[in-house]
């Protein structure tokens, strides 16, 4: 017994000494930049159960996107990993006769952040299975966000134009954002070509961009008003790359109304009525159902790219499920705080959870609250795998794809980033040199009067601290040792939708470059449209374009459709699919699309 006790005492002294070393090493990293830095840090060794570093761990900080750790944890606890949003179409019972819907069509939108125009089109196309070819009555959108303020308190006005500041209400389609593409005209002085991806959905474009001989001193400015009137100003060079901007749709209802009208028209369904917001009566006839990906996958689509709209949607939806009715931002905060406190035992009285995304500058969390949540999720939460797998992985994906890329760092940090003006944060899990699992939270908020030479190094401090702890070998000789039941979480083999989209975009950007090079000097206008290239050909001989494309196809697999008034004599070239079409001008239109494998 004496030997055991003496062993514990020696182990405790050794551990205390080791932790003092950790403290001094981490303090040195911070102090060499600014000893007065407004930084809060807590690091807990989950393998041994000991805290190995603390600094201002009980101080409240604006967390930025680290708020998503809390909102997504609540969503996973409330909804479960297999929960799916259901978007539905319904009609009043007994109103469908002889292909005519004499009454109201209801579109039920429960707040699915991933609901897209393609899925809307699929829902509306199901009307054909009911042999509906005419609607005499309104289309009513029954949205769970109908009475929610589009923006939570504390969002900055300058953020609202960009895609990351997209409004959440009253409806969500295409995450209420869009990509605007500006292609140069075919010659100097010509107007540039401004396009919105997919269906315009009521977007009105005011194009004030001209084409210049050179791109120097050129730039493009984008703005949109509350009527979804998009104004694009500036200039582009005649041979430069297409300019793209991700923008927030300022009026989601107008966008939804426009999409529904366009898609019904494309289906040859006559609509005699309006598209409005409203509530569907109980007992309406269900016509079709669309389901989202499960919450576990939506969490990855939230946390890895740090998607604000997704996080806020999950935040409100989890609160609504707990409440039993749709909620506003204030109600959601009190509901989620109370729920998390009950489930985790973490004191959150001084925490402020204004939104789920962290874009609000009213949000406040402490490093201790954050690490306590991470510790609970790792040690006691049965869905810890689903949660940790959704986090960005160092050097691998999401917002950590370009950080911690060295071989001794890659895959060893699973954490949520956070960045706003004057705010930087990083919280999650990392694995030390001797395979201990650490839960950590690092928050930095700039104080008034801080020199740019200091605030400009905040990112360095965060990364240097993580690198320092990755290299450490915490002791196993702690009397508080708790052996982890969790093996290291393997990173996801399947790429996320964001990664797939980036890969596709990079491929089409490369193709845009080589096509422009191959057709330089030809009378051809080349338009980049994200997932295709469109060539408007004014030349007399179609073979000039065809021969150039044929040479590129050896390296870049693609297919071509040619729309023209007369079938061209392109013998021995099965690459081309001819579309019998009489365009308004004598132009031939070549569409380059992805080829099937």
TrEMBL record:
What keywords does the record list, in alphabetical order?
Answer: Carboxypeptidase, Hydrolase, Protease, Signal
Output the superkingdom of the source species: Bacteria
Q: What class of enzyme is it?
A: hydrolase
Q: Which InterPro entries match?
A: Beta-lactam/transpept-like, Peptidase_S13
- Provide one Gene Ontology biological process annotation: proteolysis
Q: Which Pfam families match?
A: Peptidase_S13
**A single Gene Ontology molecular function, please?**
serine-type D-Ala-D-Ala carboxypeptidase activity
Give the Enzyme Commission number. 3.4.16.4
**What range does the record give for the signal peptide?**
1-20
Question: What SUPFAM superfamilies does the annotation carry?
Answer: beta-lactamase/transpeptidase-like
Q: Which family does it belong to?
A: Belongs to the peptidase S13 family.
Protein name from the UniProt record? D-alanyl-D-alanine carboxypeptidase/D-alanyl-D-alanine-endopeptidase
Record organism: Legionella taurinensis
Q: Lineage of the native species?
A: Bacteria, Pseudomonadati, Pseudomonadota, Gammaproteobacteria, Legionellales
